[in-house]
Design a protein that fits this description.
By secondary structure, the protein is mainly α. It has helices at residues 5-20, 26-33, 37-49, 65-87, 92-102, 108-121, and strands spanning 53-55, 61-63. Helix 1 packs across helix 3 (37-49).
Amino acid sequence: MSLLESGEMYLETIYVLSQKSNAVRGIDIGEHLGYSKPSVSRGLGLLKDAGLVVKDKDGYIKLTEAGEKIAKTIYERHTVLSKLFMDLGVDEATATEDACRIEHYISETTFEAIKAHIKKHGV
């Protein structure tokens, strides 16, 4: 399934927030991303329709197995790229911002090559 960048951002955010708390709400996602309540509601609705998130009886948002797989992939890209950029001397804020943009567009082939290079050269 192909997701737009915004959908990937929602999944990654839910994943990150769920690492801190089992109780992820739409308001938490909105605050984390700086999105309005209607935007979050629409985004979550699309992800729910795609089978990537579910809402439990208490209204908490959880990733499905498919949603978690995508979220973990995006999060790994984010963390690896951020660290690589900082290792190259880029300040943390810029490295994180650039990684956030690139993580959604980098091919799997290129990302795997970056990981192999890091592993081989201990970067």
